[in-house]
Amino acid sequence: MAVITYRDALNRALREEMERDDSVFLLGEEVGEYDGAYKVSKGLLDQFGEWRVRDTPIAENGFAGLGVGAAMVGLRPVVEFMTWNFALLAYDAIVNSAAKMYHMSGGQYNVPIVFRGPGGSALQLAAQHSQVPDPWYANIPGLKVCAPATPADALGLLKSAIRDDDPVVFIEGELLYNVKGEVPDGEHLVPIGVAEVKRPGADVTIVAHGKMVHVALQAAEHLAKELEVEAEVVDLRSLRPLDTASVIESVQRTHRAVVVEEGWPISGIGAQVVDDIQREAFDSLDAPVARVSGLDVPMHYARSLEKLIVPGPEPVIEAVKHVCYLD
Amino acid sequence: MNLSTLVREDMHALYRFLVLTRMLEERLETLFKQGHIVGGLYRSLGQEATAVGTAYALQDGDWLAPSIRDAGALYVRGLPPIAMLRQYTAREASPCAGKDNTNHFTIPELGLLGPISPLGTQLCVLNGISLTFRQRGEPRVCMTYQGEGASRTGTSHEGFAMAAALDLPMVIVLEHNRWSFGTPSYRASAVEDWADTAGAYGLPVRSVDGNDLLQVYEAAREAVERARSGGGPGVIVAETYRMSGHAQHDSQKYIPSEELDEWRARDPIGRFERVLLEDGWLSDAGLAEIRDDVDQELTRAVDTVLSEPHPPAESSRTRVYADPRQDPPEPWTRTLATESEAR
Ligand SMILES: Cc1ncc(C[n+]2csc(CCOP(=O)(O)OP(=O)(O)O)c2C)c(N)n1
After folding, report:
1. What gap in Å lies between CA B69 and CA B76, rounded to an integer?
2. Which of A249, A256, B65, B290 could share a disulfide with B126, CB 3.0–4.6 Å?
3. Structural domain that includes position B107
4. How far is A259 from chain B (nearest CA, A)?
5. Which residues contact B343 (CB under 8 A, 6 or more apart)?
6. B298-338 pLDDT per residue, tens
7. Is A62 in the same domain as A211?
8. Residue A200: pLDDT band by 50, 70, 90 thresholds?
9. By the CB < 8 Å criterion, does B308 face chain A?
């Protein structure tokens, strides 16, 4: 086991898969000479050369579409968006070309492509630059969606995404790149669509993904110390397919659930998770399921307001107290 | 060159805008290092003349949509320097009330449309503003800016095509500053002369030395007059250089130092100072007086701004909809959190 950053884990995943399979290549703005805007592709240009680490003009729909074409005829492109905010301009290529090609060609062309980059708020980058894209993609049949929280999952999921025969949207945490964690030595693959219990607990289930896993873990520590409530934190890891079975299994043991996400409440990931819980685990529930989300507003620039908009441990603790009838 | 329209007051004002742009950004850098500014901070170092010279050709009632390196254009259009400091440090009194960042100012009274983060889109939106003026028969002109990198986006191409097809009163300034993040412009496109890009849309174009304030002004005046008199959109290609990194985090170490030296010698402020001195518009003492005056104004402004409040917590749920009754209610978990804090 080595302790590495989330950034280095992604770099390792890219490097290992590019070494393993010549058809894997990386493209996007600043991925080559500049080592990536967030330095995820550091050193890859030197190792693999410019046809496999391709800098592109600022033309998101153009290079996402290019990736789809290359994927149809034998390559395995990894398309980096500087952030998912700019991928809005490539939404057409992702939703109409990548996600639908297999279906509309009657199964003749599958599209083994990964679209990746940072999502969510960072620090004071305002409304157009702080968005949580998760539900925009989780909504689309034909796509798979991953949102890892830890270096080990970033490594294992990205490798699986690159090997997957369908388009995968891979949402990294803009504030997670420096997070450190243990990563297994040797080959490490995490299957897409499998959640993981990040902290066991018997009293309540907190469901989260991405950056919110860390918030949930902080809340759980506080709850254990201050209130002797043992929360189980279930990290979804993938948003499509969603590992409903793991969530249900946990809720059947704890009888209570809080679902946390960074993004907006309406039609969010949590809405889907709550639907699954109420349908599959209704008889196990001792309280209505609670949701915690970002405020239902565009992100503000001012730090004082940004802190109120993105959920921290406090609202999660309040929600847990509420479902445990402790408030 | 036809400078007959510029009188002594103009020359003094232009110099003031140039030094204001640079000195205010130096203050912002200090505030950034002190932790008063956290998000993006983009400098226009070395490009001040392009923004100031083009905007100076506009009149009251015209509109302007800057890019990230056009702070100077905002001051020319009447933005008080203190507003820039307030916005960057997210004060309640900033024009956007702490909601938006950097030089993203949308202020109708000044005819300002702020940058839109995904590059290229802003041009399309400004087209709509200029279309409205044209439909109403108002002789107003809209001016906007793009880096050569931004001009590669699909939305930028759509914006150029639309302005040309609808013959809109637009002036589009393409700032060829050689770099887009870490990408040199020759790697972003196959064109060698960026003026060729305008030809693709059938638009008249004029290339200027973007570091020569008077040349920039003259080209802008021509394009603005043409647009105002119904002659349609025009493009100005400003040949200039990004003398700082992309933003504060970028140390620019990928740029050859000879290249920076070469362009440092073409610094737009130094060049304009020489014109002012040689042609007798200002003396050395006169130049120093303007600089000192700006410096003092900025010292006062920084002191004022740092004592002002950030936006209050209640404002986190405001200004989502035109009718405030439709703004979102406080979610129940946050109400509980505030209540238990109070307890
Ligand atoms: C559509 C889109 N993609 C990516 C970005 C991120 N980004 C911000 S500025 C920039 C470089 C812009 O270069 P250029 O237009 O040449 O302007 P310069 O910085 O040189 O002034 C990039 C890639 C963005 N804002 N919008």
Report:
1. 14
2. B65
3. 8-311
4. 12
5. none
6. 999 999 999 999 999 989 998 999 999 999 888 776 665 55
7. no
8. very high
9. no
Look at chain A and report how many structural domains it folds into.
2
**Is A149 in contact with A214 (CB distance < 8 Å)?**
yes
DSSP-derived 3-state class of residue A152: helix
In Å, how far is B326's CA from the nearest CA of chain A? 11
Taking CA–CA distances from A29, the nearest residue in chain B reads B183
| CATH code of residue A57 | 3.40.50.970
- Quick one: tokens of A252? 């059947």
Place of tokens 């003349």: B49
B-facing residues of A in 69-128 (CB < 8 A) are 85-86, 88-89, 123-128
Q: Which of B39, B189, B334 sits opposite A125 (nearest CB)?
A: B39
Q: How far apart are alpha carbons B334 and B220 in whole angstroms?
A: 52
Instruction: Measure the CA–CA gap between A263 and A271, rounded to whole angstroms.
Output: 12
Q: Where do we find the tokens 């949102």?
A: A147
Specify whether A215 is located in the same domain as A108: no
B175 beta partners: B147, B238
- What pLDDT is attached to residue B343? 46
Q: Two tokens at A6? A: 């989330």
Pair (A53, A177) in one structural domain: yes
CB contact under 8 A, B98 and A300: yes
Taking CB atoms and an 8 Å limit, are B118 and A128 in contact across chains? yes
Q: Are residues A85 and A40 in the same domain?
A: yes
Question: Using CA positions, which residue lies closest to atom 12 of ligand 1?
Answer: B180
Final residue before a domain boundary, out of A148, A183, A218: A183
Tell me the shortest Cα–Cα distance from B160 to chain A, in angstroms.
Answer: 15
Domain CATH for B215 = 3.40.50.970
Q: Looking at the domain assignment, is residue A189 inside a domain?
A: no
How distant, in Å, are the alpha carbons of A303, B32, B40, B41, B284 from that of B247? Answer: 19, 11, 7, 6, 33
Cα A54 to chain center, whole Å? 24
* B338–A contact, CB cutoff 8 A: no
Beta pairing partners, B147: B175
Cβ contact, residue pair A322, B333, below 8 Å: yes
Bridge partners of A40, per DSSP, are none
Handedness of CA B84, B90, B92, B95 (dihedral sign): positive
Q: What is the pTM of this model?
A: 0.96
Do A176 and A152 touch, CB atoms closer than 8 A?
A: no
ipTM, two decimals: 0.93
CB pair distance less than 8 Å for A297 and B38: no
- Once rounded to an integer, what is the mean pLDDT over residues B190-208? 95
User: Are A160 and A208 part of one and the same domain?
Assistant: no
- Position A190 in a domain: no
Could you tell me if A159 and A48 lie in one domain? yes
